[in-house]
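Appendix B, record 7
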Amino acid sequence: MPDGSRLPGIGDDREDDEEWIVLHVDADCFYASCERLREPDLEGEPVVVGMGYEAGETVGAVATASYEARAHGVESAQAISTALERLPRRADYDPDADSDSEHTREETGHYRPVDMDYYESIAEEVRTILHDCADVVREVSIDEAYLDVTDRTAWEVADGFARHVTDRIQREVGVTVSIGVAPTMSAAKIASDFDKPNGITVVRPGDVREFLDPLEVELLHGVGPVTARELRGMGLETAGDVAATDPEPLVEAFGERGRELYDRARGDDDRRVEPKGEPKSFSRESAFASPVDDPEPKRDQIRTLAEAVADRAQREDALYRTIGVKAVTPPYDVHTRENSLPGPVDEPDLVEELALELFEEFESEPVRKLGVRIANLEFAAGDQTSLEGWDSPMTETDASSSSPSSSPPSPSSPTLSSFTPSTVESTDSDVRTETESAPDEREEPDADTQTETQSREHVDGQTSLEDFP
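Structure tokens (predicted):
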């Protein structure tokens, strides 16, 4: 199988000491941004998305808060009851009954329950663009990823390349992201928080130490509140202090993490951007400018998408067992249908045939977006299954995830991680690559993990929900 991590003829000649160009892409208030896609009237309004929250209730925790909500003191991981004290619900506001209230209408906000299926459908679109813009993508969570773009751009124009990525995501998906560009993963991660929302911060080779030195220790990647207090107790207030100190006391206090903290504070980070696992599926999506009723344009689009994913499978020497379609109907109801085969195949004509068959029930409905997916991939060489005489029942699923009645997962339910791969709104985007997360894998080992998640979310993101399927 060809090596997908480098453009043809490039990777083998790279010098070990050549500076890499790493992008850290971090969505801005992702859940709230998704809610605004579904309800455009929420644009510019305070929006709070709650885990374990149901409309009208006071239980649950804040998963994310828009910048407007944060101005009222609402923060991620905060109890919904506390958030409501600081930002009452707009739905409960009565200008007549509340004329003597201490809160005005402008001091109220909109609360929505977490709708992971819907957010994942939007994240898929973002991920496909990321895979189209980089040769290597490491998906970290539903709203962030690292990209190695060393072979796609140059340092002289890296800021322009990053702006191309942000503009394309905003244009094709409708959400904003902020990007940090640096020669290391840890510096890029920090840089992406510097100019939110919709910002770009470039840290060029040779400037990493100058960029890191004045930062408070809390901003070092992998440092939580507990570690920060311990570092301050050692007289280390900034990254520059950590970089200038003797590393031995750090190792004594934090073990191997102490050495990592010392190295990262000095800008030393030799980790390469690597995917988390083998692809589980390929998919391709395309959106219409407005909902389409006529069946023929929709069938033509299914054919185009089916050809694209089948071609990708052949280029990657992949066989597949499952073929599926996705139809998004107004306002943003997501429906999926899939068919499982008796064994792995490489049959482009079959992909088109089954995709059209699965799509039949939506032919007469208005559709705003379509997708075709192949899954249960096998990359090992082997004989493919003969499908002669095959007649197997169809397996169907219906997400319809954007319905307001969708039940949010309970706080104890397993939840998201690994910015899984994706699809996109234009047919010139690359196919989706779905990755498998390594168990309990962390970008930065940190004994403060739980405290960190509850008190600070890389400055902008929503509360981390690990291992969402």
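Remarks on this record: The domain at 279-403 is CATH 3.30.1490.100 (Dna Ligase; domain 1). The chain has 14 helices and 14 strands.
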